[in-house]
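A quick aside before the break. I want you to see a complete sequence-to-structure record at least once, exactly as it would be stored in a machine-readable document. Don't worry about memorizing anything.
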Amino acid sequence: MSSRTPKENTSVNIKKFKIKRELNLGIFLFAIVFIYLVITIIMYFTGNKISVYEVREGSIVNDNSYTGLILRQEAAVSAEADGYISYYQNENSKVKSGTYIYALSPQKLDTDKNISEESAVKEGSLNPEIQAGIIYQMQDFNENYDPDSFSAIYTLKNEINTSLQDAFSSTRTEHLSTVIAESGLEVASYSTAQDGIVAFTVDGYESLTKDTFTADNFDRTKYESSELADQMKISAGSPVYRLITSEDWSVIVQLDRETAEQLRSDEVSSIKVRIDKDSETLWADFSIITRDGDYYGCLDFDNSMIRYAEERYLNVELILEDESGLKIPKSSVTEEKFYIIPEDYITTGGNSSSDGVMVQEENGEAGFHQIDIYDSSDKGEVYVSRDDISEGTVLIKPESSETYTVGKTKTLQGVYNINKGYAVFKKVNILCENDEYYIVQEGDSYGLYNYDHIVQDGSSVRSEEVVFQ
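That is the input. The structure line, written in C-alpha cells, reads:
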C-alpha cells in the first residue's frame, strides 16, 4: 500500500502598482472655456447694463415761428362812376398799362355764360403755345424731381396756374366784350394806368409802409377784408380792385427784446425763411426795426410775391440754425484728458506699420513704443491716451537728437464707441444742438461714422472697458 504526501501550501506575493495618469489636454481646455463662460454669464447678469445707441445721419433745425404782416407796393383803385361791375381779368392776373380791368353798366349784364376754369379747359380751347409751355414745365419738373424738395411741387402748380390764368383772361375778355355788345346797354370800360398784378380783395391796409405800420396792425381780431366780385353794385369812389406794382414785398414780424438783441449782436443781414402756407423756403434780407419800445424783424423779398398776393398775414418760420451731420444723444458725450505730443515725434516701427514714438530708455538707448492717436490739430500736435504713455517720459525725435518730455494735457469732447466690444474714445466736433441731441461732424478720421454703436450714457463706462450689451 502506497501512501501520498499532501501538497505543501504555497503563497504568492502580489504587489499593486499605481498607474501614472497622463494629462488630457482636451478636458483641460474645456474646463478653461467653461469657467470663462460661467464668469462671463455672472458678470452679464450682475454687472451694469449698458444702453447702446446706433449713430445715424440727421439734422437739427432751430427756428422761431411768427405771424407776419405783409407790406407791398400796392394801391386800391376806386371806381370812376356808379354801376354794376363786370371784370375783364381773373384774380392775380398780370396786366400791362392800358389793359381793360372792369366795366360798369347801369344794370346787371347777362353773364350766365361766363367762362369758368372747368369749361375753359376743353380739348382745343387752349392756345397751342400755352399747351406746349405747360408740357415743357411738367417735363422739366419730372426730369429734375427731388423728393427732398417738396416745395418744388407748389412752384410747378403756381407756374401752371399763371399760364392758365393768361389763357382764361384772354377768353374772359373776349366773352365779356361779346356780352357787352349784345346787351344794348351803355357800358363804360376802364383800363389800368400801370403795369401790375390785379387782385380783387381790399382791406384798407394797402397804404401801409415800413414807416407807418403800428402794433395795432398785428391784431387780427380787428382785421376785415372785402372781396370784390362780378355784378356787385359799386358807387363812385369805392374800391373796385387792388393793383400790385412791384415784385418787392416785405413781411414784418414782432420780436421779443432778447431775440432782437441776439440777432442784432450776431449781425444777421439775411435769413432763411420757411412759409407755412406751402412749405416754400426763401432767403430774405433781414433788418430790425425799433418803434415805440417794441422790436420788429423786417424780411425783404424780391420774388414769389404773386403766390401770396391775396394774403395780408403769413405764418413764417425764421430758420436760425440748420445743420446736418451725425445725430447723437447729449448724454453720450463725455470728456477725457490726453497728452499732447508734437506730430514730428510720431513714427512707425516694430513688426507693423502702427503709430508709435521713440522712448528714451534708462540705459540711454531709444526704444519703439506703440501708441494710439485720438486727434490731431492744425498746430502740428497729436493727442495720445494717458494709458499709453506716462508723464515725464522723454521722447526722441526720429532722425534727430531733439527730445520732448511728455506732460502737457488737453481735454477732448467725445463718445465711447463699442463696435469692437470694448469702449474706445472717439472725439466729436459739435455743430449744433437742441434739448436732447447734438449734430456732430461726419467724416472726421478720428471721429464717428454712420451706423457706429456708442454708449448712450458716456459716464457709465471707462476707456478700454469691456461692454456687455
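Two observations worth writing down. The two ends are 101 Å apart (CA to CA). Helices lie at 25-46, 117-120, 128-143, 151-183, 257-265. We'll return to this after the break.
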